[in-house]
Amino acid sequence: MDEFLIYLRLGFDHITDPGGYDHILFVIALCAVYTLQQWRQVLILVTAFTIGHSITLALATLQLIHYKTELIELLIPITILITAIVNFFFQDSKASTNKTSAINQSGRYVLALSFGLIHGMGFSNYLRSLLGREVSITQPLLAFNIGLELGQLVIVGIVLTLTYVVLTIIRSSRLRWTLIVSGIVAGMALSLIVNNEYLGELIK
């Protein structure tokens, strides 16, 4: 049980660590278009992301798939930038037909699931460095993944609460708030991409 709690804490700390804020930025970008009243949609969205990163986290940690770590470190901020840009074109369900709203929402689920696959490989880099010569990795893998999920939920809770404060108390418009948050996230993601060493090597 002690080992389980250790890896659970490591998973939680990894995704909530401000020093490695790329995964935090992605979760913020996913939630930026939603309000606290839409928590069910957000929960489904985060679950789609969890399914995606759980698959590749397990496969990569078990060494069933192989990839270039440098490439994944470049792709992660790209997924953040794309998600933030998509937010600029998101249509609120109140301002669109039910069919259009369903397409928008389904598209975001697919996006979260697909990009989760990339982030899972990024998580596995860290987890494999922790495992060392562990004989059995099943329990650490499960605990680490649960820790990631709990960390995600904390980030989601903070973002939705802040959104509630801005929209309800400060009374900012929802569109303005979405554009501001998504713009900041896009700018930070672009900075990560531009400063990525692997991209520099590809350009040379």
TrEMBL record:
Pfam families: HupE_UreJ_2 (PF13795)
Keyword Membrane: yes
Entry coiled-coil feature ranges: none
Keywords: Membrane, Transmembrane, Transmembrane helix
InterPro entries registered for this protein in UniProt: Put_HupE_UreJ
Transmembrane segments: 20-36, 43-65, 71-90, 110-130, 150-170, 177-194
Top-level taxon of origin: Bacteria
Full protein name: HupE/UreJ family protein
Source organism of the structure: Spirosoma validum
Source organism phylogeny: Bacteria, Pseudomonadati, Bacteroidota, Cytophagia, Cytophagales
